[in-house]
Design a protein that fits this description.
290 residues, Uracil-DNA Glycosylase, subunit E, 6-stranded mixed beta sheet, two-stranded parallel sheet, 10 helices, globular, binds uracil
Length: 290
């Protein structure tokens, strides 16, 4: 087993202090301009950030940018239960080079866009956000679905939640380019609503095929919707986060760590939540180093 790189560990500690405040908690700094609804929890709060222009980066010692509009959606429906688990019939693909993987992912995106089942469910005037990153990544991050900025740019996690995800990746001693980032659904659901079970099942099958091509060592499920699809469960994220689980849609299944969605973290940027997310990410780093 290769021993962990001490320089990387030191860098991670320093970045974690600056980013998540994990080594300096409790940090009383409030980051929200508007208070989240008292009833919003990690399981019920929307995981995609509200629509508004990207904010400039803030100094690293701040716990989070203060100019995010964190008003939670008021009409968010409770996530409906997912359909029963379907058999893990998507075999992991062996022996692909980086170039092969890139080519297969491109073909898969084209297939997705030509799939009548996908197109029948496509919300009007939406753009494809298929995923991006290293096709040979050891680590994949799985989100719920594109928000407004992702829809506009065709790239996953480029809004406020994406900025926090970038910081989380940096704090892990990794770069955004070295991981792969994708969502369960690849078209923005209307009004940022949670994807329906049917949308998740139809579009999520393509996520599973992305996973089968990339074959990451580990994945991180960001938030409740991604976790429900990945684990084929109806259990909420609050109960599942922090424990290794299995992405059940490939054969064999692959390890996945459920954690809070960065958009939820922005809404509830408490020392406790930050510590939990950081602990989850450290478990992921340990898996990658093993
Ligand atoms: N939230 C997600 O789940 N995915 C994105 O790409 C952006 C925000």
């Amino acid at each position: 087993m290769p021993s962990p790189d001490p320089t990387r560990i030191l860098r991670q500690h320093l970045q974690t202090d600056a980013l998540l405040g994990a080594a300096t908690v409790p940090t009383p700094t409030p980051i929200t301009k508007t208070k989240p609804a008292a009833s919003a929890t990690a399981d019920t709060a929307g995981s995609r950030a509200p629509s508004h222009p990207a904010s400039p980066r803030q100094p690293a010692q701040r716990p989070a940018p203060t100019n995010f509009s964190l008003t939670p959606p008021t009409t968010r429906e409770a996530a409906p239960p997912l359909p029963p688990a379907h058999p893990a019939d998507i075999k992991l693909i062996d022996g692909l080079s980086n170039t092969d993987k890139l080519e297969r992912l491109k073909q898969l995106a084209t297939e997705f866009e030509q799939d009548p089942k996908v197109q029948a469910l496509r919300p009007p005037n939406t753009n494809l956000v298929f995923g991006e990153g290293d096709p040979d990544a050891k680590l994949m991050f799985i989100g719920e679905g594109p928000g407004e900025q992702e829809d506009r740019t065709g790239r996953p996690f480029v809004g406020p939640a994406g900025e926090l995800l970038n910081k989380m990746i940096t704090a892990m001693g990794l770069s955004r380019e070295s991981v792969y980032i994708a969502n369960v659904v690849k078209y923005r659901p209307p009004s940022n609503r949670t994807p329906t079970p049917e949308e998740a099942a139809v579009q999520g099958a393509y996520l599973a095929r992305q996973v089968a091509i990339i074959r990451p060592t580990a994945m991180v499920a960001l938030g409740g919707a991604a976790t429900k699809y990945a684990l084929s469960t109806t259990t909420g994220i609050t109960r599942l986060r922090g424990q290794w689980a299995q992405f059940v849609h490939t054969d064999p299944a692959l390890p996945i760590m459920p954690t809070f969605h960065p958009a939820y973290l922005l809404r509830s940027y408490t020392p406790d939540n930050r510590k939990k997310v950081w602990a989850d990410l450290q478990a992921v780093l340990a898996k990658l180093d093993a």
